[in-house]
Structure formats: C-alpha cells, structure tokens
Specification:
Elements: H1 2-9, E1 18-23, E2 31-37, E3 43-48, H2 56-76, E4 88-89, E5 98-99, E6 105-110, H3 124-141, H4 158-171, H5 181-188, H6 191-202, E7 209-211, E8 220-222, E9 228-231, E10 238-240, H7 242-253, H8 271-285, H9 291-317, H10 330-347, H11 349-364
Antiparallel strand pairs: 1-2, 2-3, 3-6, 4-6, 5-6, 7-10, 8-9
The chain binds adenosine-5'-diphosphate and magnesium ion.
Length: about 375
C-alpha cells in the first residue's frame, strides 16, 4: 500500500521529495494521510469517498472556487494566504484530482503547520470559537456570485425529504409502520411549519449563499493562540441558506447527550453552548446577514434537528438502508433521541429567539 500511496502522491506537484506518508486521524468519510517531504512544505493527501461524492471532479472545482475567493479576501486584508485559506495542490498535468486504476479519486492540499484542531466543542469557549470560525468563513464568501455545482441535490431541502418520506411510508417495505403512529405524528405535526420556512428559501426571501455543510469544530483550524486560521474539509460546499450551517452546528454542539442516547434524560439543548456559538457567529456575520436570516436563525436549529428526526425515522421504516446500524432498533433509538433534542429546543425557543434579537441589536449599534 505504501508504494502505491507514494506512487499516487508523486502524481501531484509537490515541493521537495517525499520522505514519509502517514495516516492522519480517523475520518468517517475520506481516507486522510499526511505526506512529509524534505522541503518546507508538507501535504494533506486524501482518497475521496466516491460512494458519498458521486461527482468528485465537480466537487474539486467547487472547492477551488471557494478557496480562490477566500484567498483574494485574505490577500486584500494583508493576511497569510497559505495559512488563512486552504491551498489545493494540482497534479503535474494541472488537474485537481488523480483517478487511480481502481477508479478511486485522490486529492491533495498544503498541510497547514502549527495549527490546532479540536475534536468536540463541549465548553462555551470552544463553542464561541466554532461560531467565529464558521461565521468568518461565511462572511468571506457572502459576496461570492459564481455558482457552485450542486453535488448533493436535495441536501437540507425538506420538500425533497417529504417526497422521499411519502414514498417510503406508502411502500412500508419491512412492515414497521404499524407500530410507529406516535413517531410518525411527531413528523406530520410539524410538516407545515417546516415547509413554510423552506418556502422562504425557495422564493428568495431568505437568500442563497455559500454554505459549508459540515460545521463540526474539527473542520476549523486554529493557531496556537486560539484564533481561527481557516475552515477546512470543503468537500460539501454548496449554494444554500447559511441558516443550514447554523442549525446543523447547533444540533450537534448543543446536545448534552449522544445522537443515539438510550437515556433520554441525558439529551437536552444546552443554552449556554447555544448562546456562546451564536455570539461568536453573529460577531462575524452581523455585517451581511439580512433581516430574514436573523429572524430565522434560532428556528434553523429546530429545522435541522427536525430534518434529522425525519431522516432517522424514514430510514428505520425503510429497513435501515442509509445509516449504518448497530442493532435493528438503532435508527428508532436515534429518532427518539433527536426528537428529545427537538422538544428541548422547542421548550427553550423563546429564550433562543430573544438572545439572537438582543445580541444582534447590540452588535448593530
Ligand atoms: N490542510 C490541513 N492542514 C492541517 N491539518 C489538516 C488539514 N486538512 C485537514 N487537517 C486535519 O486532518 C483532519 C481530517 O481532515 P478532513 O479534511 O476534515 O477529513 P474528513 O473528511 O475525514 O473529516 C482535520 O480534522 C484536521 O485536524
Ligand atoms: Mg473533517
């Protein structure tokens, strides 16, 4: 494997000679390696997951467009373009990826030295830093007009999810529907509310911008002082509403329990984590967010959590085809835990909304 890795890595325009290639982290999606060289530059080398990303060439074009836009901004601000933005490394032929003989796609970028990343944001300080990271990223891209290719059609689009939901419920392929009237009602009772929100995105009341779509804190690199360097892992950049990024971050950051917690008492939305993220996020984004985006910011946490309830339940009814499961009830357990989180958000919604209102007013003064 090492020889094969070296041979593939050698297809890219690397500075210096390869000294070592080592696996990095344990990503769920891609296989990641660090390529160490005898020059000043090391590289991050990845085999992209082609089951999830069915159009890697378009994905890489999207990433390049986003990186270039950010680099221009960093440059204009007198920043360090090699540390405050991702730098893609192309092949000797000038391509952004290499396709090997097994049909696997490989890509490379500059490894950002002396950077720090965190695995989870379980303190208000880290949550604040995460909000700043994604906020800064979105802010630099707020004026990007060049469209991105929609490599994940239907992503966070509840109308699309309902079309899948209606079809799967009609077919009820493994006969699970009969025992799920309570859970199905959780979804149906909120259908109109969620569609009303999505209509505002469809009719442009809520603008479409550039979104990251994987806002975990380990996708943000910080410098040793703790300041944001840049956002990485740009495989999922899309044109959508920035509210989806905010909502998804809040769904994962604020959960005091696990996504598949069997003890529902563990699962709640942590208001301090919500406030800290919101504060960091708004500090970076208040200059460009529209009134409609601010108005629906808190709502987006419910929207994304609701979507996840629907998706877990839908996969359970469909016979566990999409998510990997550890037991036959795993998707139902996930549904119940996400629903608990959703109701916790609903219970605290007034306070969430008030915080966004007050804090954005304060920042606009
Ligand atoms: N350009 C980079 N410079 C330094 N470290 C990086 C860089 N890109 C990724 N990393 C580190 O490698 C980890 C995994 O990379 P990532 O692109 O997020 O892969 P995955 O898709 O598997 O999540 C990141 O969380 C980060 O710690
Ligand atoms: Mg990642």
């Amino acid at each position: 494997m090492t020889n094969k890795l070296t041979s593939i890595a050698s297809k890219f325009s690397i500075e210096g000679n390869i000294v070592e290639i080592k696996p990095l982290g344990e990503g769920f999606i891609n296989d990641t390696y660090i390529v160490k060289t005898d020059s000043e530059s090391n590289y991050l080398f990845q085999r992209k997951n082609k089951n999830i990303f069915q159009d890697v060439p378009s994905m890489m074009d999207n990433i390049l467009k986003v990186c270039n836009h950010i680099k221009a901004k960093v440059n204009a601000n007198g920043g360090d373009v090699n540390r405050e933005a991702m730098t893609l490394t192309s092949t000797h032929e000038g391509a952004l990826y290499f396709k090997d003989e097994d049909g696997e796609y490989w890509a490379m970028c500059l490894f950002i030295k002396d950077s720090v990343s965190y695995e989870s944001a379980d303190t208000p300080e880290l949550s604040y830093a995460g909000g700043k990271g994604i906020g800064k990223f979105q802010s630099m891209l707020a004026d990007m007009k060049e469209p991105l290719v929609d490599i994940l059609p239907g992503f966070h689009n509840i109308r699309f999810r309902f079309s899948q939901w209606d079809e799967i419920l009609k077919n009820d392929p493994v006969g699970r529907k009969k025992d799920l009237s309570t859970e199905i009602a959780w979804v149906e009772d909120r259908r109109e509310e969620m569609l009303e929100f999505w209509k505002l995105v469809e009719n442009g009341t809520i603008p479409t911008r550039v979104t990251h779509n994987d806002t975990k804190i380990n996708n943000i690199l910080f410098d040793k002082k703790g300041d944001v360097l840049c956002v990485i892992d740009l495989d999922t950049v899309l044109n959508s509403t920035v509210l989806n990024d905010f909502g998804d971050a809040m769904r994962s950051y604020t959960n005091t329990g696990l996504e598949d917690d069997e003890n529902l008492d563990n699962v709640n939305m942590d208001m301090e984590i919500f406030k800290a993220y919101t504060k960091g996020y708004l500090e970076e984004t208040i200059s460009f967010l529209s009134t409609s985006e601010l108005e629906y910011l808190a709502f987006s946490a419910k929207y994304i959590t609701y979507e996840q309830v629907l998706r877990f339940l839908m996969d359970y009814i469909d016979g566990d085809k999409y998510y990997k499961v550890k037991s036959s009830e795993h998707n139902l357990i996930r549904t119940q835990a996400q629903y608990k989180l959703l109701t916790s958000m609903e219970d605290q919604f007034e306070e969430m909304t008030k915080f966004v209102e007050q804090h954005s007013k304060q920042l606009s003064l």
